[in-house]
Automatic annotation (TrEMBL):
<protein>
    <submittedName>
        <fullName>FadR family transcriptional regulator</fullName>
    </submittedName>
</protein>
<dbReference type="GO" id="GO:0003677">
    <property type="term" value="F:DNA binding"/>
</dbReference>
<feature type="domain" description="HTH gntR-type">
    <location>
        <begin position="1"/>
        <end position="69"/>
    </location>
</feature>
<dbReference type="Pfam" id="PF07729">
    <property type="entry name" value="FCD"/>
</dbReference>
<keyword id="KW-0805">Transcription regulation</keyword>
<dbReference type="InterPro" id="IPR036388">
    <property type="entry name" value="WH-like_DNA-bd_sf"/>
</dbReference>
<dbReference type="InterPro" id="IPR011711">
    <property type="entry name" value="GntR_C"/>
</dbReference>
<keyword id="KW-0238">DNA-binding</keyword>
<dbReference type="Pfam" id="PF00392">
    <property type="entry name" value="GntR"/>
</dbReference>
<dbReference type="GO" id="GO:0003700">
    <property type="term" value="F:DNA-binding transcription factor activity"/>
</dbReference>
<dbReference type="InterPro" id="IPR000524">
    <property type="entry name" value="Tscrpt_reg_HTH_GntR"/>
</dbReference>
<dbReference type="InterPro" id="IPR036390">
    <property type="entry name" value="WH_DNA-bd_sf"/>
</dbReference>
<keyword id="KW-0804">Transcription</keyword>
<dbReference type="InterPro" id="IPR008920">
    <property type="entry name" value="TF_FadR/GntR_C"/>
</dbReference>
């Protein structure tokens, strides 16, 4: 492990141990470097690395602070990595969604406030009778974001939002090329809302699985027999 890695680990341990808490300011650079037995250059590299993944916030002329460490903030780094996926790894993203989103939907069936579930129906109604594919995909992203938030687990909600956003082009491609995709998506969304409203956690999980698996299954076939532009 490099000296910079040692510095990163030392700062991380201070946060894990509770010595540094969200919003706390780090000690002055000379003092912290001496305390950790590190060079100031190594400490600067560590601070720079941790600021890139939103663990630290470097405020010019003020100092360096621990961020809020909220899941949504920390998950930005994962989103950055996922953005570099290749076309053939979109399937892996969908596989991850198929594992995570049904469990999140099941949790939402037990915890999501009734008013928020009713809001999902209103969200679907806002599309009208003949939405465009772009309108549907935008609505779809918000639909899944709200359900994930309804799970009551901020980490899962951030993870779902990250994965869902990165499969947007694949879903747009499906909507443009697969006959009946728009109608099928809306029907599956309605079924999920119905299960949530009835507080049927097992059915909510099952309908969410079928919904995400349908996109995955279509994409597998589409990649075997390419049609049109490939998703990213």
């Amino acid at each position: 492990m490099s000296v910079t890695d040692d510095a990163i680990e030392a700062i991380k341990q201070m946060i894990v141990d509770g010595e540094l808490r969200p919003g706390d300011r780090l000690p002055p650079e000379p003092d912290l470097a001496e305390r950790l037995g590190l060079s100031r250059n190594s400490l600067r590299e560590a601070v720079r690395a941790l600021s890139l993944i939103h663990v630290l916030d470097v405020r010019r002329g003020d100092g360096t602070y621990v961020t809020s460490l909220e899941p949504a903030l920390l998950m930005d780094a994962m989103g950055f990595v996922v953005d570099f996926h290749r076309d053939d790894t979109v399937l892996e993203l969908l596989e991850a969604r198929r594992i995570i989103e049904p469990a999140t939907t099941e949790m939402a069936a037990l915890k999501m406030p009734t008013a928020d579930i009713e809001g999902l129906s209103a969200l679907l109604d806002s599309l009208g009778e003949r939405p465009t594919v772009d309108q549907l995909v935008e609505n779809d992203l918000e639909f899944h974001r709200r359900i994930a938030a309804g799970s009551g687990n901020a980490m899962l909600a951030s993870l779902v939002e990250t994965l869902s956003g990165r499969t947007q082009r694949a879903r747009t491609w499906r909507g443009l090329t697969q006959e009946g995709a728009v109608e099928r998506t809306l029907a599956e969304h309605r079924a999920i809302v119905q299960a949530l409203a009835a507080r049927q956690a097992d059915i909510a999980r099952a309908t969410a699985t079928v919904h995400v698996a349908g996109v995955e299954q279509w994409l597998r076939q589409a990649l075997i027999e390419p049609r049109g532009a490939e998703p990213r």
